[in-house]
Design a protein that fits this description.
- This protein is an alpha+beta fold.
- The protein has one domain.
- A hairpin with a 7-residue loop joins strand 4 and strand 5.
- The chain is globular.
Length: about 120
Amino acid sequence: MAQLPVKRFLEWRKERLQICSGPFYAVLHGLSGPVTALGDARIDFCAPLKSAAFINTCGLLCKTIPAGRCALLRSACFPIALGDDISYLGGVWLLQNGEQRRSFPVFFGLEPEKSAAIDIYLPIR
């Protein structure tokens, strides 16, 4: 069931490759503390657009990841250590560096054609 939205997004992106640029992103909603069950989370997939032209033919929404500072962790262990990496970034790293989270959730930069690594972004103030 969860594969249907992912498949729809990938088809949409492939059809509109000329208006999409760069990596695509996954925004992870529903995690308020240490990662224990990713199954409880909701994931939004995002693609940067070269122009404001957005043709919605398959039920996708046009939203914006807000600008601002982010802590970045590049993980070479995706998806094996994803929960541990998010917990470290949002717990240990945040406390050690005296930073505070913004209200936007953790998101990932994905470039599967270029790298097996994944960039994990934690929005901070």
